[in-house]
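[recover] target loaded
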């Protein structure tokens, strides 16, 4: 093991240089702390660094999917679209890194292998895959919620002789599909965003779909100059509203978003079949967004699903393909809403084939393509759009050990346990940014990231002011918080038995089925965190 050189002994090690790690670095610098950020990638951006697949785009309006910590940054940066595409978001991350001179404290191409709490020194010993060591008083895990790609274990998966990619780990150089036969597995957000773009380039695209998804037209458009001007003039109010809101976006709730957001106020149960049919004919999928009751009431939800399927039937020319694309058997809105650009239209193209895996699944990957119970398919390029080991995946890949050498993975064997999604009992001075048990992936990540980093920074400053060495969640507070997280998730669409979402860990074989994010809302959650801090860090143990 390499020696710990003095410069590797710091106040804070931050793991990850996505939006959370970048802001953490800036914020902790303001406190006068010494910091090292360790990042596996070659540059900043996290999720937006890795997810460069064609069509990758944010589903939060860009003026709101941005940092609020610096007024001048807010005023200087000009977003060009209502919902920004990945290249523009990555450019923004790079701009922030340059502007605040962040890179000098970020060590790239550095993957953290383990971090172990030393009870004698009250410090974390961090070891990288290259064998370098660091010692830090605080360890901030800014490791992201969708950062560990899930590649399903399919027989023969190493056999394929052509090009192979995962949407969540896309090559920096991009991929040229022209003239190629392409196969893509998965129709979540990544599949749905990339399929229309790839279909335009490839000679032929075959889509392997296991579960049809609910997706709404994004209706994205260039940002108008006067809209941007108004947003900039109004930023203080926008930020205040975001912070008090349910999901960290002004005027949006848990329903479907899209550029033309509609506040759901009507009840679908008060409508007649004729009215619903007329609305579908007039407005298509967007007709569904007006209903408030579909979020809570299963029968109302099923009525909306009928409207949805009717619109799929109207859009798809081939009836067999249309039927295959119609989601059934699970409620709309229980998975993360997807918004798309010309997804369904793509299946009317001559060079696109849909393989409905419910009629016969994938048996194996062969040297030339995919073998299914319905036949064999030959490709030049195979793409996995099969998602992520969400929320706990990145933490689970690092050997994190707290008091008494307790491994986090063992402590979380039955599912993640945290207090406020910020800390874990037995792991003093270790913080999980947007961790399970916080609004996290149910919110605008930028809002939740800033809230967490601000809270952690205040906490560190308070500890120093009071002459305290460590802070650690108590088991009792953790129990109480988890009970509350579960209670508020109950009786929502999110926890419907028929729902196999990554929020529940249901996309990863063997992962405990637990609803991981906090559904109570960004505003309520922020108040709770602030109250805890103001009450002397209630539920935490502070040690001198
Ligand atoms: P998702 O939403 O988890 O989607 C993954 C897709 O891959 C989904 O359609 C899965 O089908 C499919 N999948 C996974 N494993 C297999 C196997 N073994 N065979 C066939 N199909 C499979 O991930 P995304 O990357 O699209 O989106 C993640 C988030 O990123 C998204 O919610 C946004 O917040 C951004 P299934 O539904 O499990 O039957």
């Amino acid at each position: 093991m390499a020696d710990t050189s003095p410069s590797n002994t710091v106040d804070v090690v931050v793991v990850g240089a996505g939006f959370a790690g970048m802001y953490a670095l800036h914020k902790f610098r303001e406190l006068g702390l010494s910091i090292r950020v360790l990042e596996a990638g070659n540059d900043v951006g996290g999720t937006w660094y890795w997810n460069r697949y064609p069509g990758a785009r944010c589903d939060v309006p860009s003026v709101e999917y941005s940092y609020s910590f610096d007024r001048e940054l807010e005023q200087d940066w000009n977003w060009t679209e209502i919902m920004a595409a990945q290249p523009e978001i990555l450019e923004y991350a790079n701009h922030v890194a340059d502007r605040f001179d962040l890179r000098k404290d970020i060590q790239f191409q550095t993957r953290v292998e383990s971090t172990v709490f030393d009870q004698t020194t009250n410090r974390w010993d961090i070891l990288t895959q290259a064998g370098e060591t660091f010692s830090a008083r605080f360890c901030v895990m800014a490791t992201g919620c969708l950062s560990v790609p899930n590649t399903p274990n399919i027989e023969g998966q190493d056999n394929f002789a052509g090009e192979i990619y995962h949407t969540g780990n896309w090559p920096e150089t991009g991929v040229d599909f022209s003239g190629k036969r392409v196969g893509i597995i998965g129709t979540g957000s990544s599949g749905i965003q990339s399929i229309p773009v790839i279909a335009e380039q490839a000679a032929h695209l075959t889509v392997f779909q296991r579960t049809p998804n609910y997706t709404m037209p994004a209706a994205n458009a260039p940002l108008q100059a006067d809209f941007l001007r108004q947003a900039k003039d109004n930023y203080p109010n926008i930020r205040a509203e975001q912070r008090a809101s349910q999901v960290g976006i002004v005027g949006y709730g848990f329903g479907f978003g899209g550029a033309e957001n509609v506040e759901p106020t009507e009840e679908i149960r008060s409508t007649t079949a004729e009215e619903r049919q007329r609305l579908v004919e007039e407005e298509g999928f967007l007709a569904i967004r007006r209903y408030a009751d579909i979020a809570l009431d299963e029968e109302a939800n099923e009525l909306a699903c009928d409207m949805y399927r009717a619109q799929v039937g109207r859009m798809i020319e081939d009836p067999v393909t249309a039927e295959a694309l119609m989601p059934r058997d699970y409620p709309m809105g229980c998975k993360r809403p997807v918004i798309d650009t010309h997804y369904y239209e793509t299946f009317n193209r001559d060079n696109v084939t849909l393989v409905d895996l419910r009629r016969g699944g994938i048996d194996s990957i062969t040297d030339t393509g995919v073998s299914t119970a319905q036949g064999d398919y030959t490709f030049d390029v195979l793409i996995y759009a099969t998602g992520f080991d969400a929320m706990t995946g990145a933490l689970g890949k690092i050997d994190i050990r707290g008091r008494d050498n307790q491994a986090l993975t063992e402590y979380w064997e039955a599912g993640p346990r945290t207090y406020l999604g910020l800390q874990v009992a037995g792991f003093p001075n270790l913080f999980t940014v947007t961790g399970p048990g916080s609004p996290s992936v149910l919110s605008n990540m930028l809002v939740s990231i800033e809230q967490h980093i601000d809270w952690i920074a205040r906490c560190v400053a308070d500890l120093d002011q009071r002459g305290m060495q460590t802070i650690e969640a108590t088991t009792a507070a953790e129990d109480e918080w988890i009970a509350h997280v579960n209670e508020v998730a109950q009786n929502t669409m999110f926890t419907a038995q028929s729902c196999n979402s990554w929020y529940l860990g249901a996309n990863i074989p063997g992962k405990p089925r637990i609803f991981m994010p906090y559904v109570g809302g960004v505003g309520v959650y922020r108040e709770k965190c602030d109250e805890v801090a103001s009450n002397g860090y209630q539920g935490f143990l502070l040690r001198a």
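[recover] notes: The CA atoms of residues 439 and 525 lie 7 Å apart.
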